[in-house]
Amino acid sequence: MFILYPSPAIAQRNATQRKHQMKTLVVCLLFSAAAMVLGGTVPKGPTKPHTLRRQDFLDGTYEANARVMPEVCPSTSACSMTDAGWPSNGFSCPQKEDSYGVPDYSFLTAQDTAMVYGGGDPITAKEWPKSCPLPRKGSKMMRYSNGAWSAIYSITPTCNCPRGVEPKCTRANGLSKETCNIAVLRFCEMRSGSDLCTPK
């Protein structure tokens, strides 16, 4: 039985190949470890940059407590506010087994996240309830519905800001030199399904 040993040249070549393979393996392991570390800090799925809302920045200054309604005055925004008759204590609706009426939190959430920023659907004068006087010329007649209840109200703008000037809306409660554009919400009616609900 004969045992064949590789020549010195072949043995050296094999040793060099094994050395390169080991280096490649080490590099791959390092990249894998780095990817695992970085992967733990990156959220899954695509990420999108945070979109700044128009009401967040006015003249470059963040207004934390501002309610700003865009596109209600020509080429500018207005400070949004409710009038003295806006419901603040909830609603009384007919008692029905299949109806929850209008929960206070539901109306307040819609008011604070949608209505005061112009959310809702425009309606025509024909759709405006006869029990409410028509709002003045230039007002928007609106309906906001969440599927269970519907609120009808108007948005009446007063636009006094000079061209190119945005109003300051932090803690705004009426017209002033700085609060030069306002949009006033006036309540008309609330319905739970087809039932009329009255403000408490």
Domains, number: 2
Distance between the termini: 107 Å
Helix fraction, binned, reads 10-25%
Q: How does the major sheet shape up?
A: 8 strands, mixed
Helix and strand run: HEEEEEHEEEEE
Count of beta strands: 10
Helix segment tally? 2
Backbone structural class? alpha+beta
Shape: elongated
The overall pLDDT average reads 76
In terms of DSSP E residues, the strand content is 25-35%
What is Rg? 33 Å
Oligomer: single chain
Low-confidence stretches: 23-64
Task: Set down the secondary structure blueprint.
Blueprint: H1 8-39, E1 57-58, E2 61-62, E3 68-73, E4 76-82, E5 91-92, H2 104-113, E6 121-122, E7 140-145, E8 149-159, E9 181-192, E10 195-199
Descriptive overview:
By secondary structure, the chain is of the alpha+beta class. It has two domains: 7-38; 56-199, no CATH class. The protein contains two helices and ten strands. The chain has helices at 8-39, 104-113, and strands spanning 57-58, 61-62, 68-73, 76-82, 91-92, 121-122, 140-145, 149-159, 181-192, 195-199. A hairpin with a 2-residue loop joins strand 1 (57-58) and strand 2. The termini are far apart. 21% of the residues are buried. Residues 23-64 have low confidence and may be disordered.
